[in-house]
Amino acid sequence: MKTPKNSIRHFDRLQRRTIQFVRWNLPVLVLTSLSLFFLKCEGTSPDAKTLLVPLLVSADSTTSTAFGGNQGGQTGNGTPIAVDDTPQTFAPTLNDITYITNDANPADDPYSTKGLLQFQKTSVSFKKPVPSNTTITLYFGKKNMELQPDGTVTNALVTLNRTAATFSGYTYLTEADKKVKVYVVAKNEFGISTKQLTIGHPRICADAPKLPATIGDCNDHCIEATKTGSIVELNAKYKLPIQGTSLNLDIVGVSPKSLPEYIAPSQNLVIPVPNAGIHTIKTSFNIYDTEFLCTKVTSFLTISNPMKFTIANGYLSIPND
């Protein structure tokens, strides 16, 4: 049988524990009471679909409680979503592809005729995170390389296969002053994204002016270059100050190679007795018919009277579109 003194002590301990329990769990008790009150006022039964009862937890100085969801975000010191660690599933959407070009290493290019197309690790990126097994394929080829609707590519000269987790860049050795067609294809189970580039490394073509352009002095002998749609027109002009004899004026466009290929066919104007004024001869080419970054255009002029012989020549950049 407990003595009155022991009963008082027992009552004191019980009272302290009750006060401590209420103090630790007061926010939760208040929230639960309010939830029940509002449900009662609305006439709604507290079933599993309409009532969320917070869990009463033991208070501890190292314990924290968070309320609400964390949809698609980070709290505290959580690890950011990376390419190879994404909680959501996205079809790939490629950003614009970046690259740099450089001269080839002399050990690989003793005649200075090659260039490097360099894709860095950051050259290929996505608008949203993608699964780490998303494939990234780079295709290199000429103008006859074609992309099919299913993401496959035909007539590629070189193919590089990587994934979003393993792509670390790539360097492609190519002939300088020639265009290279590049397809970048990203694919996973949710979709396909593609990008196309037409690029090259200029060496001889590095300083070629863009169209429209003029080579020479049009008050005497010059070449004017213009572009309409995909057609580049080259117009050789000579301004004859007086009536003369035996005028010969031509125009041609060739590749920048040491063994040139025709880009714009040669055209020739011959006038036995030319009148004073401007005399012209034209040639042209389609930009999609050549794989060179520029063309060397040349016009020869000869006339017997007044006696004259001049050459107008230079390089002109060939646009991609």
TrEMBL record:
Q: Is Transmembrane found in the keyword set?
A: yes
Q: What are the TM regions of this chain, as residue ranges?
A: 21-39
Q: Which UniProt key words apply to this protein?
A: Membrane, Transmembrane, Transmembrane helix
What protein name applies here? Answer: Uncharacterized protein
Task: Identify the species of origin.
Answer: Leptospira kanakyensis
